[in-house]
């Protein structure tokens, strides 16, 4: 499957292109970039891949799939353009500014018979894959609650204004991970911490409490301006607990100059000293890391396009995440618990 990558900023360069190259059954067929410096980076990284000035030019050249990883406020129009051309689309997160717009994009794709997927790639993180195995095996017994925390010492990447903020950014990932692990949400209580930016008030950290229809509670939190870099997953059940303080394995490897295509079988595993710990009446047990592997998203999406199967993250799943984010913003603004229908 020929994939065109629309956008070659931080996301396109580090979280899409290397994993397209590593994925089986796909090839990077074109990159859309406009700024001279961005075009130059793309040509250095992929001298054999053509660079186009617009999505329109890329579509005219012919591709099977396009990935839209431009700034959030630009994605709606680009996703609709690809859908209108009958080309399968992967939209970066958040794939829409709110659930209403998400439903609009999902309806357009359905009407055109186009496969639409959302790049919630952090389902494929090593720590989340490991935790899913622990939960599926019921190692902590009946689950009571989950704490999902990711603090980032990364102030320069905080997008300002009404369409930005950390809740839509990292919150998209944490909410998606949590729903994927624990199922649907029935109520949302949130607190956001705002800073003034030139683009307007911007949430720079958040805490969200989710009540799931199963009765399980989850607590999600993240910050970008507090000079903390902490990743923690913590679950409690009636037979014990599991705590993981892992690293951002794949991102750290990418920024260190490594690429998943260079070592597909060894890629994305947490170091043994950072494996999560299961604590039960039997004592403590270190749980070996599952593989973190973003390229599996691309392999699964290409299979969905070829075979007509469900993509790895469906529009309906992403809309549920947007509904929770919408409710979190309302909850923080009005200081109340919001119930989802």
How would the blueprint of this fold be written?
Elements: E1 2-6, H1 10-22, E2 27-32, H2 36-45, E3 51-52, H3 55-61, E4 65-68, H4 72-84, E5 88-92, H5 99-112, E6 116-119, H6 126-136, E7 143-151, H7 166-182, E8 185-197, E9 200-212, E10 217-223, E11 230-237, E12 240-244, H8 249-255, E13 276-280, E14 283-287, H9 295-307, H10 315-334, E15 338-339
Parallel strand pairs: 1-2, 1-4, 2-3, 4-5, 5-6, 7-10
Antiparallel strand pairs: 7-11, 8-9, 8-15, 9-10, 11-12, 12-13, 13-14
Helix pairs in contact: 4-5, 5-10, 7-10
Run of helices and strands: EHEHEHEHEHEHEHEEEEEHEEHHE
Instruction: Show unreliable segments.
Output: none
Compute the separation of the termini in Å.
Answer: 39 Å
- Kindly state the mean pLDDT as a whole number? 96
Estimate nothing, just give the exact number of structural domains. 2
What structural category arises from helix and sheet content?
alpha/beta
Principal-axes shape call? globular
Give me the CATH fold name of the largest domain: Dihydrodipicolinate Reductase, domain 2
What percent of residues adopt helix (DSSP H or I)?
A: 25-40%
Q: What is the CATH homologous superfamily assignment of the largest domain?
A: Dihydrodipicolinate Reductase, domain 2
Word description of this protein:
By secondary structure, this protein is of the alpha/beta class. It folds into 2 domains: 132 residues, Rossmann fold (3-Layer(aba) Sandwich); 171 residues, Dihydrodipicolinate Reductase, domain 2, CATH 3.30.360.10. Helices cover 37% and strands 27% of the residues. The chain is built from 10 helices and 15 strands. A 9-stranded mixed β-sheet has the order 14-13-12-11-7-10-9-8-15. It has a 6-stranded parallel β-sheet with strand order 3-2-1-4-5-6, sandwiched between helices. A hairpin with a 2-residue loop joins β11 and β12. α4 packs parallel to α5 and α7 crosses α10. The longest helix has 20 residues.
């Amino acid at each position: 499957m020929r994939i065109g990558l629309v956008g070659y900023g931080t996301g396109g360069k580090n979280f899409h292109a290397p994993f397209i190259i590593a994925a089986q059954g796909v090839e990077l067929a074109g990159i859309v970039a406009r700024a001279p410096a961005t075009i130059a980076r793309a040509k250095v990284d992929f001298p054999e891949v053509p660079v186009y000035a617009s999505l329109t030019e890329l579509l005219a050249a012919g591709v099977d799939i396009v990935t839209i990883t431009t700034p959030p406020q630009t994605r709606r129009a680009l996703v609709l353009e690809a859908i209108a051309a009958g080309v399968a689309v992967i939209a970066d997160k958040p794939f829409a500014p709110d659930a209403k717009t998400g439903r609009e994009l999902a309806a357009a794709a359905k009407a055109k018979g186009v496969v639409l997927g959302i790049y919630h790639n952090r389902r494929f993180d090593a720590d989340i894959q490991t935790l899913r195995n622990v939960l599926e095996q019921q190692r902590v017994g009946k689950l009571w609650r989950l704490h999902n925390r990711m603090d980032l010492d990364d102030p320069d990447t905080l997008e300002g204004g009404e369409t930005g903020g950390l809740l839509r950014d990292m919150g998209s990932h944490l909410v998606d991970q949590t729903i994927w692990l624990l199922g649907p949400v029935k109520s949302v209580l949130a607190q956001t911490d705002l800073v003034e930016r030139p683009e307007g008030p911007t949430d720079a950290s958040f805490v969200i409490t989710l009540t799931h229809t199963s009765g399980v509670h989850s607590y999600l939190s993240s910050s970008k301006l507090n000079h903390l870099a902490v990743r923690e997953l913590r679950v409690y059940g009636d037979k014990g607990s599991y705590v993981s303080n892992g690293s951002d394995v794949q991102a750290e490897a990418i920024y260190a100059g490594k690429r998943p295509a260079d070592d597909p079988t060894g890629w994305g595993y947490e170091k043994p000293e950072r494996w999560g710990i299961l604590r039960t009446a039997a004592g403590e047990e270190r749980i070996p890391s599952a593989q973190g592997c973003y390229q599996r998203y691309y392999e699964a999406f290409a299979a969905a396009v070829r075979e007509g199967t469900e993509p790895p993250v469906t529009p309906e799943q992403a809309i549920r995440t947007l509904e929770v984010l919408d409710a979190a913003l309302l909850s923080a603004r009005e200081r109340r618990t919001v119930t989802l229908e």
